[in-house]
Amino acid sequence: MRQANLERLYRAHTSSPVLLLLLLLLLLLLPLLVWSRNSEDETLQKLSTSSQNRTAVWGEQLSGAGVSAASTADDFDVTSSDDGIVSDDGGPRRRRRRQMQEQDGRPPTLSHGLMHFGQARVAMVHGEISLGEQLWSCHQVANVAHRSGACAAAEQQIDTKCAFLELGGPGLCAFDLAKRMPSIPVNLYPSSRRLAELSLPATGSLESNFQLEGDLDQYNKGHPVVLQINMLRGRSSLSYIGMKSVAVNLLSRGAVGAAVMTLQAVSSTHLQLQFLELVGIAVSSGFSAFWGGFDGQDITSDLGRVLRKQQYGHRSINIFLLPRDVAAKEAPSPPPNRPPPPKLHVLVPLRPQREDERHGLTMLLCRFLLDTAAASNLSSVHVIGLTATGTHLYHQNSLIQKLMVLQYVLEGPDPSSGMRPWVDISPSDVVMAIDATDTMSQLTSEEFLQRYLDAGAPVFHVSAEVNIWPPPVSNYTHLYDEAGVNAVPLPNKYLNSGCFIGRAMVLKKYVQDAVEFVKTNTKSDSSWLFRQHVDYVDDQGVMSFAYIMGNPYGISLDHEAAFFYSLYCATDHLVLSCGAIMYDLTSTRIGLLHGNGHEGKSRLEDLRGGILGDFKPDPEFRFLVDGVVTRYGDTCVNVPPLVFGRPTVQCPPGGAQPEQTYTTRSVEPKDCPARG
């Protein structure tokens, strides 16, 4: 049976005549490549003895299973560096590219590395899969193992019969779950067995609950499995035919208690259709499909919408599957163990550097964000840092103050400090972080959350703008090209960190890594940021490099302005209709307007007048300040108009500086909806 499993899953590497011809050509050229590599760099390390032994053992196992050992060429040559990071030499071509990157200031890119993921250290190909999206998926897998009636008895801890099976990818969830939840049997079929064998000693102390390519016939109705399938591009992927065969076999035997299926970002149309076919097989077997989480949008009756909504989204597709209650008489009912919808927290960092700044910042907060929040009924606003005392939230660089305040809120205070947390945020909750003094809202809290779920619940979705900022990032424009943003037919192509929304646990991980780097100019082994030697300047620089350098956090950009719109050199596409500012290129009622840059801030008063008209905020409108319920009338008193002089700027390509901030669309008053 083990031989059959391996043949099914790895068939793609051995069944193609073209591949055999390529391998034959590689063998003929191998002496020349070896000579060239040795002549270029005599200091390259050879495989360690332990790695050689593992490779030899794997070759024997594959040969015994009918798989050619030559297929290991897909894994490259792995060496152990002095700092313990597993990297690959990749031959003279990759080394020349690395030298070119060093010459233009771009840090060298390693094909393989050991990444800290939860409690595991996993050897993986850089950029192979989004760590942020996998972090969220693994959290969901662990939770459903607790709740699922197929895996656990009600009101009890995890049943030892519950199991987890991961197909494809480096095994991030498999190694992490095996490490921190030893009562769950874990089985992994990785894309690269060699890298998985490197992950075993790196993670260490795995109990007998972990199997590498274990028997698949052990799963049945009495011994169900939570299944995770990672469909990756190119050589990082297992055979689709093999994964489909395994999934059909498990589903037909009723052995699947829940499933998560991930399609890597920027996949081919062919791979997308294969992915939907696999999801469709699960749906036809009695499962409901949810986009972006078990608490996400139900797409069971319209699986194709994930591709339609991904038109400008360069991120993975994650579908979560739970069995429907097929015992219902009228029609299948929703899964009984589905978690409740997430809560939305609108966090507004506002931390004065000096006490004499507090009043002026509060007036800006009232004039734009709180006035429009009262009009749009954005009821979940939480201003954080305004009244805090002490120096633990201060930093000499005020431009990263926002990150430090967010870290404090997302982590909570040190338990030994005796301080109370400002807000209780679950890892599954949705956090929207926005700048405090130059933003205006047009949607209710419920509308923001609904748009988030409709968009597939992206784990880390960030505002976009027409300009590349800060200046050091403009030296890496070619990396934006590689990320695919230039293919987006909209002017707001580049990252703006003023506003972002996502899952709390993913944002928390990013903020922790970013604050650590900015405060110490170093990064720990557990950080997902790449080692850099560039001046980040501010929080936008940190996030921009996190996006263009491998994007480990799963950042996606809001090109369509479904949530945020950056105003700098971009107001020529704004239309005022029924007291709301619309983005005319996508016919979208913008959720939140952000006056980035001096040019953007100079447009705020015009836009405020168009949005509010003669509306007067209710003094009883409530919001939170550092965890305390606060009345609008107690905070915003005698707020004057705040007019910024409009500077003359050189707008980037795709941007413009029109005289009028917006155009007006003529609409009959009776056709306009009532103000929320």
UniProtKB/TrEMBL annotation:
Residues of the PLOD1-3-like GT domain: 428-606
Signal peptide residues on this chain, from the entry's feature table: 1-36
Keyword Signal included in the entry's annotation: yes
Annotated coiled-coil segments of the chain: none
Positions with biased composition (Basic and acidic residues): 667-676
Biased composition (Low complexity): 78-89
Pfam families reported for this sequence: GT_PLOD (PF25342)
Signal recorded as keyword: yes
Record key words, sorted: Signal
Ranges for region Disordered: 73-112, 653-676
Protein name: PLOD1-3-like GT domain-containing protein
